[in-house]
Amino acid sequence: MRQVENPQHQLGQIAIADIVLDPKSRDDIPQLLRGLQHIYCTPALRAEVFDILQQVIPRDEHGEPVSADNGRPGMEQWKILVLGVLRLGINTDYDRLHELSNQHKTVRQFLGHSDWYDETTYSQQQLRINLRLFTPEILDQINQAVVRSGHVLVKKKPKRWANRS
């Protein structure tokens, strides 16, 4: 059964909204994580993004979604979103993504791991299997949802282009 997010938090786990990101960092990873933090902290946008992520649920040989009641639980959708955005956002391979998911402190906090005594690791195979359906097209749909949310936030109306002859 694939969950959006594990409702049972671990001891020492930091809430996504409380993770402190360096505002002066010029690296691309904190900027991507800041965008993910905004998605997580905006309930309407988060619901829309998780509706889009329903496309990432694996399908059986007949094209039907696999049963949520049978088999292994699979990776939570939030983790798929974080790792998929990192993979496509920094245009990296699975080797670097494997290193980031297992060693990068802030990325691990976004994945829901506590700073101490959490020895959960991800294998490359686990990353490949869970992220194979997170395509650039799905990321583009999420980007469109975030842009629409941003326009609502700043109360900007979409421009209507006049036909110019």
- Number of helices, counting only DSSP H or I runs of 4 residues or more: 7
Question: What low-confidence regions span 5 or more consecutive residues with pLDDT below 50?
Answer: none
| Distance from first to last alpha carbon | 55 Å
Tally of strands: 0
Strand content: under 5%
H/E topology pattern: HHHHHHH
- Based on Cα principal axes, name the global outline: globular
List the helices and strands and how they pair.
Blueprint: H1 28-41, H2 43-52, H3 77-89, H4 94-103, H5 105-110, H6 124-131, H7 136-153
Helix pairs in contact: 1-3, 2-7
Care to describe what's here?
The protein has 165 residues and is mostly helical. The chain has helices at residues 28-41, 43-52, 77-89, 94-103, 105-110, 124-131, 136-153. Helix 2 packs antiparallel against helix 7.
Keywords:
165 residues, mainly alpha, 7 helices, 0% strand
How would you summarize what this structure contains?
The protein has 165 residues and is mostly helical. The chain has helices spanning 28-41, 43-52, 77-89, 94-103, 105-110, 124-131, 136-153.
